[in-house]
Design goal:
- The protein is α/β, with parallel strands linked by helices.
- It has 2 domains: 3-231, Rossmann fold (3-Layer(aba) Sandwich); 269-335, Arc Repressor Mutant, subunit A (Orthogonal Bundle), CATH 1.10.10.
- 36% of the residues lie in helices and 11% in strands.
- The protein is built from 11 helices and 7 strands.
- It has helices at residues 13-26, 76-88, 105-108, 133-140, 154-167, 176-184, 188-196, 217-231, 269-282, 293-304, 312-320; strands spanning 3-9, 32-38, 63-67, 94-99, 114-118, 325-327, 333-335.
- It has a 5-stranded parallel sheet with strand order 2-1-3-4-5, covered by helices on one side. Strands 6-7 form a two-stranded antiparallel sheet.
- Strand 6 and strand 7 (333-335) form a beta hairpin.
- Helix 4 crosses helix 5 (154-167) and helix 5 packs across helix 7.
- The longest helix is centred in the middle third of the chain and has 15 residues, at 217-231.
- It is globular.
Length: 336
Amino acid sequence: MHRRVLVVGHSDADGHVMAEQARRNLETVPSFKVSTVVDPVRTSGHKAWLRLSDIPEIEKSDIVCFVDLMFAPASFALEADALVTFAKARPEKTFLVLDHHPLPNGRLGEAPNIRTLYRDDVADCMIGPRSEMMRIAALCERGQWTRVEETSSPAEKAIAVGVRRAAAPGGGLPGAKLSALLRQDGYWSEFERLGHEPNEKHKLPRGRRRAGDTASKTLAQLDKAASALLKAAPSHARKTEYPMSYDFDAVKGRQAPEVSTPIPDRRDLAGIVMLLELAAIYLSPTPDSTFTVKQLIEQAQAIGGNEIAIEEKDAAIVLKKSSFLKKLSGGLLKLK
């Protein structure tokens, strides 16, 4: 039996990218059926916590992962209480909150089915592997430090500008269209070209597009391509000639692979790591929570469902080199 997993992402630039990275990571678990909601109306900011009933997709999901939806410093109590009330009314669901802003863990901890993960660098704000796509996400977030800034290439910086321009509220791309483009992995060159366009073509007061502004040539091309993707069958992915794939960490000069959705192997490393990290988060209701290897494997098995059989020897190999756990004395583990 599949477990329905929903990724709800903030509709700004880094939120779109982070939601897509989360979708890809979660889909490595064979028993997970993953969908996403990134919407310029429903997930546009911290007030989304007060309107969770506007996201009916939650009701059809077993696990809900909120990505990049911050709690505002001035109103976090009201927002956290809204999520707690919502989660308590749905005890059969698990809610995960990932953000690169501090989280009101004390209040959120009042709901036994809410777990949180705070990473102060966008590049690290993810469950599962952090691909090169997270470098773009980090560069999209302006005004917050990221280690990526020190090593970013001109191409990456231009792509980030392009994604920010594509995600600007008031335009035609934020939401399903931009998500479709990111999912296909074939439009990084267009995002780079969009980032190189003159600022005069992208006047964004307070980050928004002005009503009546004419879309630039590249922006119009991306809008047309996104519309076609949404109408086409999923198997009609665009084959890219662009040499940089931020999903597969390809280096310059290497052909980027065509996106596909193979059936995950139950013993595939990515899926095992994904489940173990999810289990570690679930077993950490507080930052000081500890657990044993046995508890971790049992929890991962519970999350993965009957279709998954996590073998102890496979888990032991993964945990020996894990990047998300800290080993303590007495055989205990702790989430980093």
